[in-house]
Design brief:
The chain is α/β, with parallel strands linked by helices and 261 residues long. Helix content is 49%, strand content 15%. A seven-stranded parallel sheet has the order 3-2-1-4-5-6-7, with helices on both faces. The two termini are 29 Å apart. The protein folds into two domains: 9-189 and 227-253, Rossmann fold (3-Layer(aba) Sandwich), CATH 3.40.50.720; 191-225, no CATH class.
Length: 261
C-alpha cells in the first residue's frame, strides 16, 4: 500500500517542531503541498527548505501566535479567503501544566481559546473549500487524557475533551460532504514538549528527569516512548483515500497505554 497525496493541499498546525513537524514531513513525503503553521518563523523557514530538499516541492508557511486568539482568527480567515486545503491538521502548543487546585479561571479561559476556539475557527474556515470539492480531511490532535486524565495536566485534560467531543459532532454533520473528521488520542512521544513537562514534574517531586522518563516508559505495554515519525504515519494514512470510511473515530496511538476499552 503506497499513500499518494500528490493532488492534495495540507495545512498543519504547530508544525515548527515535534509531532506537528513530523506530520508535515510525512504528508510532504507522500506528495502533498504543505503549509506549515507556527509562531517561530526561523524554524518554519528552515523546515520548508528541508521539505523542498526531501520532496522537490516548494512548500509554504504561515506565522501565527496561537495565544492571541483574535489575531489568529484574522490571519486564518485571510489565508482561507485566498486558499483552500484538502487536509487540515488541528494542532497547537499545549497549555501550561498544573493540577486542578493550582490553575485559575483565567488559565481555563486562555486554554479554551488556545485549544478549542482556534480549532473551531480554523475548521470552519477550511470546511467551506472542502464542501466545494466534496472532499476533505480534518484531523484533531488531542490526547489519551480525554479518556484517562493525566496527572498534573488539568487544563489539557479538560479542554482537549471538549475538542474531541466537538470533532465527533462535526463528523456527523460533515459526512454528507465526503469530509471525514477524526481525533487522534496522543500518548507519550519523544518531543521537546514532553521533555519540558517531565522536567517540571521532576522539579516538583524532587527527582531526576531520567526517573520520570523511565517510569513513563514502564507505564506503556511496549515499554518505550513513541517516536514522532510513527505518529506521522498514522496521520498520512487517515489523510489518504485508504481511510475513506473512517469518520468520527477517536484513535489512540499510545503503545497500549490506555486501559479503557
Amino acid at each position: 500500500m503506497k499513500i499518494n497525496l500528490k493532488s492534495k493541499k495540507a495545512l498543519v498546525g504547530g508544525s515548527s517542531k515535534g509531532l506537528g513537524y513530523a506530520v508535515a514531513k510525512q504528508l510532504a513525503i507522500c506528495g502533498a503541498h504543505v503549509t506549515l503553521v507556527s509562531r517561530n518563523e526561523s524554524l518554519l523557514k528552515s523546515n520548508i527548505l528541508e521539505l523542498k530538499e526531501l520532496t522537490g516541492i516548494k512548500h509554504d508557511y504561515l506565522v501565527v501566535d496561537y495565544d492571541n486568539n483574535l489575531e489568529y482568527k484574522k490571519i486564518i480567515n485571510k489565508f482561507f479567503s485566498k486558499n483552500s486545503v484538502d487536509i487540515l491538521i488541528n494542532n497547537t502548543q499545549g497549555p501550561p501544566a498544573g493540577d486542578v487546585l493550582s490553575v485559575s479561571e483565567v488559565d481555563y479561559e486562555n486554554s479554551f481559546n488556545l485549544l478549542f476556539q482556534n480549532t473551531v475557527n480554523t475548521s470552519m474556515a477550511a470546511i467551506r473549500g472542502m464542501k466545494k470539492k466534496n472532499w476533505g480531511r480534518i484531523i484533531n490532535m488531542t490526547s489519551v487524557s480525554v479518556k484517562e486524565p493525566l496527572a498534573y495536566l488539568a487544563l489539557s485534560n479538560t479542554i482537549r475533551s471538549a475538542v474531541t467531543s466537538w470533532g465527533k459532532t462535526l463528523s456527523i454533520e460533515s459526512g454528507k460532504n465526503n469530509i471525514t473528521v477524526n481525533n487522534i488520542l496522543t500518548g507519550f512521544f519523544n518531543t521537546k514538549r514532553l521533555n519540558q513537562l517531565n522536567s517540571e514534574k521532576a522539579k516538583k517531586f524532587n527527582i531526576k528527569i531520567e526517573d520520570v522518563f523511565n517510569k513513563m516508559s514502564e507505564m506503556v505495554p511496549l515499554k518505550r516512548i513513541g517516536e514522532p515519525e510513527e505518529f506521522g504515519y498514522l496521520v498520512a494514512f487517515l489523510s489518504s483515500e485508504f481511510a475513506n470510511y473512517i469518520n468520527g473515530a477517536n484513535i489512540p496511538i499510545d503503545g497500549g497505554l490506555l486501559k479503557s476499552m
